[in-house]
Amino acid sequence: MKTQVPVSHIAQLANIPITKDEELKLEAAFEETLAVVEKLQSVNVSGVEPTFQVTGLENVTREDIIDEQRMFTQEQALANARAQHDGFFVVPQVISQD
Amino acid sequence: MLNTLTLAQVLAKLKNKEISQQELLADLEKSSVQNEKLNVFLTMNEHMAKDSSALAESKLMGVPLAIKDNFCTSGIRTTASSTVLNTFIPQYDSTVTKRLKAAGGVIQGKTNMDAWAHGSSTETSQYGRTLNPRNPDHLPGGSSGGSAAAVAADMAIAAIGSETAGSIRQPSAWCGTVGLKPTYGRVSRYGVIAMASSTDSPGPITKTVEDAAILFNHIAGHDPYDGTSSTSPVEDYTAALGQPIKGLKIGVVYMDIPGLADVKSLFEPQLKVFEELGAHVEYAQAMDPNHSIGVYTVVQRAEVSSNLGRFTGVRYGDDRSHFGDEAKRRIMLGTYTLSKGYSDKYYLMAQKVRTLFLQDFTELFKKYDVLISLTSPGFAKKIGASEGSAMFGELEDMLVEPSSITGLPGINVPCYHDPKTNLSLGMNIMAPMWHESLMIKVADAFEKHTQWNPWRNAEKQ
Amino acid sequence: MTAYELVCGMEVHAELKTNTKMFCGCKNDPFHAPQPNIYTCPVCLGMPGGLPVANNKAIEWTIKLGLALNCKINLFSHFDRKNYFYPDLAKGYQISQYDQPFCYDGKLETEMGTVRIRRIHLEEDTAKLQHKTINGEKVSLIDFNRSSVPLIEIVTEPDLITPEHAKAYGKALRQILRFLDIADCDMEQGGMRLEANVSIRPIGEKDLPNYKVELKNINSFRFLEKAVAFEVKRQAVVLEEGQTPVQETRGWDDDKGETYSQRVKEDAEDYRYFPDPDLPPLRFTEEQINAWCAELPELPAALKARWASEYSIDPKYAEVLSEDKDSAEWADQIFRKAADQQLNPNAIANAIVNKKVAASVGDSAEKVIAAFTELNKTESMDEGELSKIVAEVVTENVDAVAQYKAGKVQVLGFFMGQVQRKLGKKVDVQLVKAALEKVLNS
Description:
Helix content of chain C: 25-40%
Structural class of chain C: alpha+beta
Number of strands of chain A: 3
Distance between the termini of chain A: 41 Å
Oligomer: heterotrimer
Distance between the termini of chain C: 65 Å
Shape of chain A: flat
Radius of gyration of chain C: 29 Å
Strand order of the largest sheet of chain C: 3-7-8-11-1-12-13-14-15
Order of helices and strands of chain A: HHEHEE
Shape of chain C: elongated
Structural class of chain A: alpha+beta
Strand order of the largest sheet of chain A: 2-3
């Protein structure tokens, strides 16, 4: 069963730039992967709850206390920035969303 | 050559001043010429000698450790084997490397891996593949291929890797080393570049079970920076070494999976050792691991697609056009399975089947203390084997995926060696959650009573 | 032209004033940071390997707000990832809540009508973007001091029936947030952000309209009221033409006095929500919720009702004095002391609000009451002197006397003023009144 994945739409959602060539290759790859995944549909899961976390942990929170140790200096924060200006990170302007 | 010693041996000899750190470092330096060919290390710690000398009095005595390149190491380039992070130098340490350093360990260098840990071959690294030191026409496995190869080649005394679904155990099997995957939540994920958040487990890759237990002691335990790390108390895992396994109930699983014909006959005789040691060995029926492939594929890709959203080249690294093919495939498939109209069919469904696996293991562990299987359905594959298949990793890791997706601990020990190819088979020993001591006990017993571990046998001489 | 009515719901975001951010221990103080990017860490900067751990104070405060707004509390709840790309979103996803928010099904009463609260959830704020041109290039500057600050989101049902109602709701909500002391709600800084979903339908129709226009980036209640009012008119024109207003996001241009299109929404976004695997779920007990409920301070509605019944405080004065918790507590103390001394609390309220006395929040009750009594102090009066002045005034104003006798009783006020003027000092008005009436009625 061929599952049509809207590759270019997904690439947009995923913010991944792809060429037309890549689009075709990806379509084939998806087909292969989804064929494997489709087998899951044959499993009987009636009455089964999903497990999002295997630890069974609950209520893991932290106190509202400042962690000086882990805070970066401005220099550390910007250490790997591609572009910076006066202590800010810089990006080319995106068409305003909001 | 001191680089061929185990970690336990090195620590003992350093302690009673039989050898010096400088001597050890010198021999490791000599062995590093292999890197040209094997491509094990991507980055070396330039300050290794300096760091090491200061730590003579500590527990790990300044011994260098090879660290998989998805662990953030402060001041040392960290790439996850992707060119997206070619220039990334973290200003912080992962909890694992922080603890190792606090115990007196030293970062030797960062090892090659499948880019972003997406794979079981180390062929998807954007810095070239790593070769299997036992037989360089073959792959080391992955994604912790560099770490396993470093240990196998005696280029490192011991190493740290991580497993999302087989990435510690499978390369250990292919390279002939020990690989310990802890219970999910036993070792902190903080500072490890996230792959599948709900299964990622950092762990040691070493020459012997004893070495694994030593390192495990230092990295296990609760971390307030990791909300999924357990507060349950940490044992002394070295206390499980040399313990008798008489009366233990062992269940052997996955032996009826098609495709194991070649190796089944080599593996099964190895189980006799356990009976000779007084354990009860029985074949057991487990839930079909084929289904774990589907679960893992969906869950991992979904979580990956979200976890890799932070790599935009603004605050660090380079932009998203640098992602390799495998990464692009996984991110997009993950995006698709989470997208509107599909997330119930895929993501939710996968999480439900995961529950079934959890239930299945719970039932099995009512009857058995540990479960044993082959780690990999075959020997290390040849170079190039991973190319051309979008599902290579998942199929290779089928036998270990059930324990990965359910968070169970597992350890790989070498259990057969082919003298013609010089390649090994690995045995996967699994225990219930939080019972690493049990599997360490069994693994150690196997290692001590068989001849498959080259370092242990070297010791015997 | 058909007569239309407003169908409006609001989404309000408020930054919580916790010490630290939502998922890390970085200082939460984006508005007063002396430099950009000084309150960051691997977690809120979205560095590789960063992991979130939830701030339990932020959770407690969210639930308390829910309780204050009569919400039901989800005893089992969790955080979800909302995935999208934007330069101010460090991780490429925002940790928020999707299908199990902490609070739901509540209500806020206003004089103009009940507003049902659909849900209240907790999430993290984004970084701050500034658009600039540097070296001829259009760029955005990003400051992550604000990244991951706890943000509470309150969503109503479309129960707002007039622009004034929307404003009243916003103000009442802000008052409660301040009373709980969980948010400063400084609207200019963005500490509180208003969004309104506006549509209209013919009066009397019960179904919800098949479209809605989102008003965003409105940073004052005045603008909110104007923008909603404008939209009602604008949408009516479109509907009269037989069209449906475009489903889009609009902002308010105060200079032009109109809304303008910012972004057209074709479909709802695909955020690919899924439970955040890094954050274990939350489970609360009834006991815990009850304990938090017991810790709630007296809320504005209850306080104002008590002031009305105990002290007869005029609602106008009550509104001003209860604008924030400090002011309310201060005024409450003054009223209690005033009542103890048989003084009229409402008169004091009047004096404070109309600035007849110099009083600021924090001044001791004694000081304020003393100032008030000083204001209304009357001097002693010799009875004889009063009678003399009263007689003088009556004699000098024959016409007024005639008017009074003819039934115009209000003329008495004129006489009172005349007497006071002649006296040149403040005298107990009751005495003056009695004296005048005695003479005038004879």
